[in-house]
Known about the structure:
225 residues; alpha+beta; 4-stranded mixed β-sheet; 3-stranded antiparallel β-sheet; 8 helices; 7 strands
Amino acid sequence: MLKEIYHGSNNIIEKPLFGYGKSYNDYGLGFYCTEILDMAKEWGVSKDNDGYANIYQIETEGLSLLDLNSNEYTILHWLAVLLENRVFDVNNSLAQEAKEYLLKYFTVPYKKFDIITGYRADDSYFSFAQDFINGAISVRQLGNAMKLGNLGTQFVLKSKKAFNAIQYTGYEIAESAQWYAKKESRDKTARRQYFDVEKNRRQRGDLYIVQILDEEIKADDPRLR
């Protein structure tokens, strides 16, 4: 299937290079894109500088895809990938135990895939994940929080095979005055909804990390769905 994808940046990138980038991004080294043009424009700008939405086409036939939002996985599988790559504040014993447990029982062999799709732990969304491992919110609340603000999903090229399948077709300029304000508004909306709707709205039967640890709950437990 031929897809059009976009990469927000402060540079025009005609040829993404395999093996370059930041190893501490959500899913490790890779080329991070989105299937939503407006989202790429938000990601491409800074407060004082315009950016670009680089446009590509990619033929996905023959490429292996890991969809972390599929029914095969839970939000804890996504979180385990994040824990392996991002730097979390684990300054208490509960958070440290949670990290070790999730990495042991919810690890996904994501490095063997050509492409990964899943939530983007951007700004507030990363803080939601951190709240979960610190015991402040439940699995249900974390799953709901990741949908706040309509951030969408990211489309990440991981393998050399995927990089070879991408073709640059052009770019659109993203003006900071327009798109940075939209990015800030999205983050503020997500944070406001989180505090108003999710964080303090415990429901009967909610699963918190303490219970997951105490009961040694695994990925096949229906309560995680």
